[in-house]
Amino acid sequence: MAGLAYPATRYAPAPLVDLTSREERERLSPSALGAFFKIIDRWGVRDEDARGLLGGVTNGPYYAMKKNPEGRLLDSDRLLRISYLIGIFKALNVLHGKKLADEWVRLPNTNRVFGGRTPLVYMMSGGTPAMQTVRRLLDARRSGM
User: Fold this and answer.
1) Domain limits for position 66
2) Antitoxin Xre/MbcA/ParS-like toxin-binding domain: which residues (predicted)?
3) CB-CB contact of 25 with 73 (8 Å)
4) Count of the separate structural domains present in the chain
């Protein structure tokens, strides 16, 4: 087996973002919150459910973030949650027309993963691991699996 090697590639992966770095979180937080609130609006998600998707944010901080995302500092867990939701949003818009893409998270789903629940309820009850599962499911569908 000597001489076998992976083929050469010109692909250079983007550097990993260090979410433990305060500077990185300061840089990413305002745009992440802006994207989050646009997605929540497009999906028609209630504020109570949106707070759950963020990991249980209480009313005061949630509405402060919603009113003015600039200058907010999210922790790495919330940035990761928003990252999954952005990926889910993108995948839905690749797979479906705008109307279905925006309604999909609120529709009961017969896929075994969801057990008849809506993807929104599944993600709210399962937190970050559930968001990762939904993202992976949709990414697999996008790739034809």
Assistant:
1) 22-142
2) 94-144
3) yes
4) 1
